[in-house]
Amino acid sequence: MDLSLIVIVVVVTALIFDFTNGFHDTANAMATSIATGALKPKVAVAVAGVLNLVGAFLSVEVAKTISSGMVDESRITPVVIFAGLVGAIVWNLVTWLVGMPSSSSHALFGGLIGASLVAAGVGAVNFGTVVTKVVIPALISPVLAGLVALIGTYISYRVTARAERGTVSKGFRTGQIVSSSMVALAHGTNDAQKTMGVITLTLITAGLLAPNSGPPFWVVASAGLAIALGTYLGGWRIIRTLGKRVSDIESPQGFAAETSSAAVILASSHLGFALSTTQVCSGAIFGAGAGRRLAGVRWGVAGQMAIAWVLTLPAAGIVGAAAAWVASSGTVGTIVVAVVGIAVAAGIYAVSRRKPVTAENVNDVPAPQPAAAPVRLAA
User: Fold this and answer.
1) Chain CA centroid to CA 207, Å
2) Mean of pLDDT over the chain
3) 86: phi > 0 → left, psi -120 to 50 → alpha, else beta; which?
4) What contacts 83, CB < 8 A, 6 or more positions away?
5) What is the pLDDT of residue 69?
6) Helix, strand, coil % over all residues of the chain, rounded to 5
7) Which of 54, 112, 168, 171 lies most in the core, judged by the most C-beta atoms within 10 Å?
8) Is residue 252 within 8 Å of 80, Cβ to Cβ?
9) Cα–Cα distance between 61 and 79 in angstroms, integer?
10) 30 within 8 A of 249, measured Cβ to Cβ
């Protein structure tokens, strides 16, 4: 396949991933504000979309980590990056379908690592960078955000214990407008950069940019617009999970969760850590739930989310590796990967339409099915 054509294909695929990242991660900023009624659902996603776009222009440190630190750009090609993106997109869509807030970031890293290993061997992956910039932040950040949110929630309820509940709720809902906006801004600052880094990496491997270059302005702008559009469309399935299935969130808890999430994400973006905003915000929501009442947290949902987090990187890596193996056969292989990827995406979307989750029913939680009556065996 002509080099210029494959570069265009990879850039478009990267922006598609960025779009899925947007609607997959809308819940990070707005789930608690929607659940508490601080913001109406459609207003919330509109605010998040605008602030995601603004956040994309605030820093490029994470983009540099991906474009010149995670994999050896001299040993891979744009086709390898394309295969890695396919792995990330497929995993994003699968987890969105089941309403599970897994990490879009780790899906991207997994896809790229899997594809690079198949195409160029172990030496193509800088595992030191992966450990220090990805794995360690993934372990620390949700725990840190959870602890901060837990303490913040406890203090909030202690300070307002004698106040009138309606006044307290109204005040914290107002605060949530600011705190959720900060999370949306932070999300754009961290997550949009990952796509910037992938596109920049593609341009470097194609010889269109010098090694260690930062993302050009058009890359920053296009990545910001793609994630903002995805955010505006709203990942209602995951918003329902974080807003209603984890715990019955009240406005003081939502404010504490959002404030702690924003602080952790913005600090990591400044340091160039490509952490998972999903894991940070999920950890904060669990911490906020536990800060009010430990038994009020649905720990079974926490277990399901933890399993999804563990599986994300290897699952996306397997898909990325398979895509790289097929695409390495040449133009026909690349076309096959693209066609299969489109077919899988279309199938997932078709299945999602059977029980759609929208702005109108996002706060409705289906009642649990009653347990079946025990079957008695005849004597």
Assistant:
1) 30
2) 83
3) alpha
4) 111, 115, 119, 320, 321, 323, 324, 326, 327, 337
5) 65
6) 75, 0, 25
7) 112
8) no
9) 25
10) no
For 8-65, the DSSP string reads HHHHHHHHHHHHHHHHHHHHHHHHHHHHHTSS-HHHHHHHHHHHHHHHTTS--HHHHH
Tally Cβ neighbours within 10 Å of residue 224: 22
Question: Rounded to a whole number, what is the largest CA-CA distance in the chain?
Answer: 81
Alpha carbon distance 337, 347 (integer Å): 15
Cα 40 from Cα 51, distance rounded (Å):
16
- Give the range among 8-17, 23-32, 327-336, 343-352 with minimum mean pLDDT: 23-32
Amino acid, res. 70: M
Beta bridge partners of 71: 125
> What is the per-residue pLDDT across 58-88, written as a single tens digit (0 to 9) for each?
877 777 766 666 777 778 888 998 999 999 9
pLDDT at 302 over 90: no
- pLDDT at residue 336 greater than cutoff 50: yes
Query: Which structure tokens are listed for 116?
Result: 């690079």
Contact (CB, 8 A) for 118 and 329:
no
Q: The pTM is what?
A: 0.83
Distance (Å) of CA 326 to CA 12, 27, 118: 20, 34, 10
CA atoms of 292 and 285, how far apart (whole Å): 11
Burial (CB < 10 A; 0-12, 13-18, 19+), residue 218, is: exposed
Tokens (6 digits) for 204: 């470097």
Residue 221 CA to residue 192 CA, distance in Å, equals 10
In whole angstroms, how far apart are CA 282 and each of 186, 258, 262, 305? 15, 10, 12, 9
Which one of 125-129, 200-204, 240-244 scores highest in mean pLDDT? 200-204
Q: Which of 132, 154, 110, 149 is nearest to 311 (CA)?
A: 110
Alpha carbon distance 127, 110 (integer Å) = 12
